Amino acid sequence: VMVEPTSGCPEGHIFCRPCYVKALRGKKSCPTCRHPVPGRSSFVANRFAKNIIQSLSLRCKHAPKGDGFRMDVSSWAEETDAPTAKRPKLAPAAAMPAQDLLRELEHRGLKSEGSWHKMEARLEADRGKSEGCSWRGKVGALAVHLRVCAWAPVKCPNILCQESPLRKDQAEHDATCGSRLVKCERCKMVVECRLLPEHEGSCPRLKIKCPNAGCHDKHSRGFMNVHLRTCAKQVVKCLQKGCHASMPRRQMTEHVKDVHVKGPRLLDAAGQLHSLLQENAKVKAAALSELRHAAGGASAS
Q: At 207, which helix (H) or strand (E)?
């Protein structure tokens, strides 16, 4: 259907405005008579052609593919109670779109016949089984209809989603779209719905149990590292030079006191005692030697 019928030459040749603009990009002349056309400044909207086009009847662009709803004319001719002279003169096995047949019957003055209602009921039944829009109307009303057509594809409002569901299925798609944005209930971070389970597994606000055996504390994942630096059940290495012991933090304090504080003191005390004993032995030996020497001198005199 011609969109915005437009003329630009003295002969009044009519073209679709978008196509006319595209044609003039190459040559500034009328595609039919080759008369020079300076550009859009010479365009004139053809109201007469536009009114004719706007009054034309058509189906929705999302109607079922093919010829639409068809009805066997021969079966209608057998059922109708209309006079034979008024019946459509069509081949016995012919078939035509039901809407066209209804218009033909209305034109022949048969709209009041009983078979008319049978055909309408059959047409509505066929419409319910079709996969497409059943709208029919004027060209001028098509744009308004397409804005609400249930069979028109609609881009998903979620930016990261590339799907375009039908308008009638949009609500169902929005409820299950994996790209819709949702907020984590714990950390309030906004993520895609399909990534929420993965996020929940690593959410910094998720409370987890301390991994150390015997510790039953629970903290958020983001605070767990702080807890492990003070957890009494955390296994740590002794920081004393030359010591390779590893044990829970609670026992490490006693280990340092017993091994690295009390132990050296005891060793120092033992060393001092040993030195005193050695010195005492030397003094005693010297005293005995002096006594012996004195006793030997006395016996000689």
A: strand 207-209
**What is the pLDDT at residue 197?**
87
206 or 67: which carries more pLDDT confidence? 206
Contact 152, 132 (CB under 8 A): no
Q: Please, which residues have CB within 8 angstroms of residue 167's CB and are 6 or more apart in sequence?
A: 148, 149, 150, 151, 152, 153, 154
Q: Which pLDDT score, from 0 to 100, does residue 264 have?
A: 63
pLDDT value for 237: 87
| Distance between CA atoms of residues 177 and 158, nearest Å | 8
- Reading the block at residue 82, the tokens are 């209309």
Average pLDDT, the chain: 77
Measured distance CA(240)–CA(254) in Å, rounded: 13
Nearby residues of 107 by Cβ (< 8 Å), 6 or more positions away = none
Give CA–CA dist 266/258, Å, rounded. 10
Taking the C-alpha atoms of residue 97 and residue 116, their distance in angstroms, rounded to an integer, is 15
Helix 139-146 × helix 47-54 angle, to 10°: 60
Per DSSP, 49 falls in state H
> What is the band of 111 on the pLDDT scale with cuts at 50, 70, 90?
low
Report the C-alpha gap between 191 and 179 in whole angstroms. Answer: 9
Band (pLDDT 50/70/90 cuts) for residue 167 is very high
**pLDDT tens sequence across 213-250:** 888 888 888 888 888 888 888 888 888 777 888 888 88
Q: How far apart are CA 98 and CA 136, in angstroms?
A: 13
Contact 95, 69 (CB under 8 A): no
Token pair for 168: 């009638």
How many Å apart are CA 212 and CA 197, to the nearest integer?
A: 26
CA atoms of 248 and 231, how far apart (whole Å): 9
The C-alpha atoms of residue 268 and residue 271 are separated, in whole angstroms, by 5
User: Which of 81-85, 96-100, 183-187, 290-294 has the largest mean confidence?
Assistant: 183-187
